[in-house]
Amino acid sequence: MAGQDGSREPPDRSRTPCNVTPKRDGSGNDHGYNSFPGYNTASPRASDTRPPTKPASARVLAPDLLRGLLMMVMALDHAALALHTWEHGTGRVAEADGQAVLRWNTAAAYAVRTLTHLCGAGFTFLLGMGVVTEGWLTLAMARVGKGWTDDGELAADDDGVTRPLLRARDDIRATAERCAHLSWSIHNVLLAVLSLVTIFWNIWLSDDGGVCAPSREDVSTRSSPSSPLLRVWFWVMMDVQSRVVSGFPPLAWLSFALLGMLYARVTTARPWTRRALVLGPVLGAVCFSILFVLTRVLHLGNLSERCLQTPDQQRRPGQNQYLASAASFLYVVKYPPDVAFFALTMAGNLLLLAMFTAVPPRVARRFGMLLDFGTSALFFYIVHMVVLFGAGTLVVAAWGRETGVADPMDPEKTRGVDNLFGLHRSSGMSTDGVNHHVFTHAGDADRQQATSNAKDTIGYGTKVVGGVSPGKGGRTHLDLPVFGTVKEAVEQVNPHVSAVFVPAPFAARAIIEAIEAEVPVVVSVAEHIPVHDLLRVQEVLRTQSRSRLVGPNCPGVIAPGQCRVGIMPFRQYARGCVGIVSKSGTLSYEAVGATTAAGLGQSLVVAVGGDPMPGTTIVDALRVLFEHEETEGVVVIGEIGGEQELRAAEMIREYRRSTPNPKPVVAMVAGQTAPRGKVMGHAGAVLTPGDVTAAEKARALEDAGAVLVPHPGVMGSTMKALLGR
């Protein structure tokens, strides 16, 4: 312990050993916690750890509570990464591809994402506090004039660290004072390791080295800002050959530690009241919040703003993308961090510190879990890492290393269960947000039709995770697991799409089973499902909000070059910018051929089916296409029967009225010469007395602003002209 003159005082060996819990007698630090001994001192010396004369305030516990909360958030974040619960970070199909935000447009998701951002900044800030409050490193400070200077070198605290850790002298009894130093040593070692790993990190998780997408190779998440001052602050070390880079620029992250040191110097300079220690961080949080707002208003945000953008930002080329929406305003990145990230995380951590400081002592002591995490951070850090990753070793011993399951972060490789990736098949988000984690649901999963379609779908790149065949659960087919029920499949592989290949008499039962298992998307291709069965399906659909049915009597859904669910002849499809929605599968193929020949390609093709009671209507599909990022123009193909086209016309009219730059719509209605009372191919394609004719539907679409074409062959050239290409 440093004396007032800077010399070492001999340790007091008459105090309580480290393994004895302090008495809870109401004097001093009676709650058994507090690894920040100088934070509540009544002495102007930060290193004076004598018990205060009054009962310990909650401000003693505030840093420990903050560290405990950050430890819990980090553990949950690591669990999400290990189990691949959600896509985030700089990994493949995440921020490095600029598309993860498609899954983050909810308030809860943004809150979770922001909390994970607070961890690295908070740990580094607390490390700065620890340096001043004498923990792992001793930084003796002396007051000179109006400032502080070092009166000694930054050196290891031999008395406080080396001897307690090594137990070199068995005859020395540990004292309460040295116990505090030992606690500080352990925590600051952890914080130092975490900060160094954070500062000198690399983008190994990104198989493209941080580049946005193949079509934008010149845009990298590692780009430096144009401002010379910011370029120094956000200097990124990189070695392109080895791909060892500092995803977190050292100077920018060390600034968190410097702020922690400054904060600790101020708080330990005198015995502040609790109100002052609450208002101080609140004032700091307000200042950083203002800085954050300024970065948004002045357009000083992402260092790679052409790369990491929300969908709303991408709609505002040449404008301030951060003012596009609330999601765009709050979205910040840390690969590498930008000015907005720095301001937002500092504001968040200071607010949390103020909140914990304001908590009354009797209430603060009830946060036992946070305090345990905060004061035993190293122990819990090791434990949660062992639980998440070390447990895989036992699984390897029992079931072997190689599972053949693709590594979620690198699908080109297969990984064993030693890192727990093999225990969870990744959901696989494609680059346009279409999730293609599919299983085949068939009356007999190894029959010719289901097998042939599964082979083609897998070959197209869709991630097929298994099949369902009643009575054949536990088998494998095409190296994929077969389950006896949809519920079992959901529990084991968590699919996002169910492709139902079941004959019409039994299709309704299979569809309802998938809906009750809460599969998000159910695609049914069967034709001639009995009307009574369709009524039961519609009734089940109305009682829930988790599943969407596409079909029946449709070829399915396809995002060309990415995902195919259904029976479409995928070889004629080409990835592009035109979205197509059609009642008729055959006419959708004609539209695909025309747009491919015109050099436009397709972004998303949805065939809603020709039955009278479809699960997804033209209006539903239009709503998706109007919001779809890759779709620049929309083709609508209707036909006789029903009134879907009239409702679609109303939606198109409202969309064009409320949208500044609406996407062009090309439309066609088949059945202009169809006789009344005769079914024309589809069960719903029948013109009965009193029905709206094809000509009336076409007129409604034209009045709404759609451009009518007489046949599919000219759809490509018409759309190309509307897009100005």
From TrEMBL:
Pfam assignment, any one: CoA_binding
Transmembrane segments: 182-204, 244-264, 276-294, 339-358, 378-399
A GO molecular function held by the record: nucleotide binding
Any single GO BP term: tricarboxylic acid cycle
The protein, known as: CoA-binding domain-containing protein
Composition bias, Basic and acidic residues: 1-15
Keywords assigned: Membrane, Nucleotide-binding, Transmembrane, Transmembrane helix
Organism, scientific name: Metarhizium anisopliae BRIP 53293
Taxonomic superkingdom: Eukaryota
Biased composition, class Polar residues, residue ranges: 37-46
Domain spans labelled CoA-binding: 438-529
PROSITE patterns: SUCCINYL_COA_LIG_1
GO CC annotation terms, alphabetical: mitochondrion; succinate-CoA ligase complex (ADP-forming)
Keyword Nucleotidyltransferase annotated: no
